[in-house]
């Protein structure tokens, strides 16, 4: 079985050695350098990568990724797409070969997008950038995905793990323009609308975020409950910033009903109740969140809802109501999950978003 890695790169010389070491189990590595001003291309070539330098004008991620995919040899059985700020954990090839089956088009595997301050996993979900050649192409100017000629056939790869260790100095300033372009090119695509609304929220453009996310929810194709609930939560977050807390509460209640298997809407409600001193309701929502014990492996989950934070906030809610023994028990549970979690008391914890 021939397995090749392909990637795009620009000004990523500090990551070259780490990335190449993690890709060493492949039969070859092919990189499209899109205009580095540092020594990225030379560093990669010195470590054994096949590098092509080519500027993509106007810039868009899908065009660049398709061009990099086309660099891989024609005898490929499987193609692996990664970025230079990512690391494949050792043993990934054996795991992939063991899981791959005749007829598969795509592998799904664990992707850790961020890490907590203590080094534990943060945001993580299933990824699917490993595929058979000739069955798909990248689409969308940003937040690009693979589009298949026929219905993809997936296999899950236990033991394959990709970790993201990003360069915090890089700007994401181009994302908004590319997301606006993506939404304009694909006006019926609910995914593009959701990502654009989320980007407006990240940039503090609250009104535009609310309008765009409400537009997402109104689209007939917007049927995936976790993403719908995420749009509702983001609307609520924007409304809080606009000092419209009553409306925010209603949107969070809608999110709970939309995705009752997720902790995140309940924890957002608990924080909103805490910010208003509604401690009995805060307690109730914390307990309901903790009753959910299975974390979905999708990108809408947030690590804060699955660590010590629910127990910390529950301890605070209990302390505020005079339930000192419960508060102490919850604080101990929080400290089991995070040793530096605060001791119980009315002033413990950060109750903001």
Task: Annotate the secondary structure layout.
Layout: E1 3-9, H1 16-22, E2 28-33, H2 40-46, E3 50-53, H3 61-69, E4 78-81, E5 86-88, H4 92-99, E6 106-112, E7 124-131, E8 136-139, E9 145-148, E10 154-164, H5 175-185, H6 190-202, H7 206-218, H8 225-241, H9 245-258, H10 264-275, H11 279-290, H12 309-320, H13 324-337
Parallel strand pairs: 1-2, 1-4, 2-3, 6-10
Antiparallel strand pairs: 4-7, 5-10, 6-7, 8-9
Helix pairs in contact: 5-6, 6-7, 6-8, 7-8, 8-9, 9-10, 10-11, 11-12, 12-13
Tell me what you see in this structure.
- This protein is 42% helix and 16% strand.
- The chain is an alpha/beta fold and 353 residues long.
- The protein has three domains: 3-164, Alpha-Beta Complex (Spore Coat Polysaccharide Biosynthesis Protein SpsA, Chain A), CATH 3.90.550; 171-255, Serine Threonine Protein Phosphatase 5, Tetratricopeptide repeat; 261-353, Serine Threonine Protein Phosphatase 5, Tetratricopeptide repeat (Alpha Horseshoe), CATH 1.25.40.
- The strands form two sheets. It has an eight-stranded mixed sheet with strand order 3-2-1-4-7-6-10-5, sandwiched between helices.
- Strand 8 and strand 9 form a beta hairpin.
- Helix 6 (190-202) runs parallel beside helix 8, helix 8 runs antiparallel to helix 9 and helix 9 runs antiparallel to helix 10.
- The longest helix has 17 residues, at 225-241.
- The protein starts with a strand and ends in a 16-residue tail after the last helix.
- Mean pLDDT is 95; it is low at 348-353.
């Amino acid at each position: 079985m021939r397995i090749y890695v392909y990637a795009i790169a620009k000004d990523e010389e500090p990551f070259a050695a780490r990335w190449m070491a993690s890709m060493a189990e492949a039969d070859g590595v092919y990189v499209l350098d899109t205009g580095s001003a540092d020594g990225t291309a030379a560093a990669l070539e010195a470590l054994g990568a096949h590098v092509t330098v080519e500027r993509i004008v106007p810039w868009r991620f899908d065009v660049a990724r398709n061009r990099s995919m086309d660099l891989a040899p024609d005898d490929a059985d499987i193609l692996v797409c990664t970025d230079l700020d990512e690391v494949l954990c050792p043993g990934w090839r054996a795991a992939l070969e063991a899981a791959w089956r005749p007829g598969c088009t795509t592998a799904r595997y664990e992707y850790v997008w961020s890490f907590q301050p203590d080094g534990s996993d943060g945001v993580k979900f299933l990824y699917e950038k490993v595929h058979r050649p000739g069955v798909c192409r990248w689409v969308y100017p940003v937040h690009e995905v693979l589009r298949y000629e026929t219905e993809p056939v997936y296999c899950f790869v236990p033991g394959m793990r990709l970790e993201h260790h990003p360069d915090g100095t890089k700007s994401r300033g181009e994302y908004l323009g590319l997301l606006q372009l993506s939404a304009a090119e694909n006006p019926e695509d609910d995914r593009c609308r959701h990502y654009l609304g989320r980007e407006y929220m990240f940039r503090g453009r609250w009104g535009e975020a609310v309008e765009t996310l409400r537009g997402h929810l109104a689209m007939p194709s917007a049927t995936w409950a976790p993403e719908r609930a995420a749009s509702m939560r983001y609307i609520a977050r924007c409304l809080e910033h606009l000092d419209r807390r009553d409306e925010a509460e209603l949107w969070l209640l809608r999110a709970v009903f939309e995705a009752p298997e997720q902790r995140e809407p309940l924890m957002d409600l608990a924080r909103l109740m805490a910010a208003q001193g509604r401690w009995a309701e805060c307690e109730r929502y914390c307990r309901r969140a903790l009753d959910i014990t299975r974390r979905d492996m999708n990108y809408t989950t947030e690590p804060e809802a699955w660590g010590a934070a629910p127990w910390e906030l529950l301890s605070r809610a209990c302390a505020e109501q005079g339930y000192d023994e419960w508060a102490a028990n919850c604080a101990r549970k929080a400290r089991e999950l995070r040793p530096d979690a605060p001791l119980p008391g009315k002033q413990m914890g950060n109750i903001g978003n």
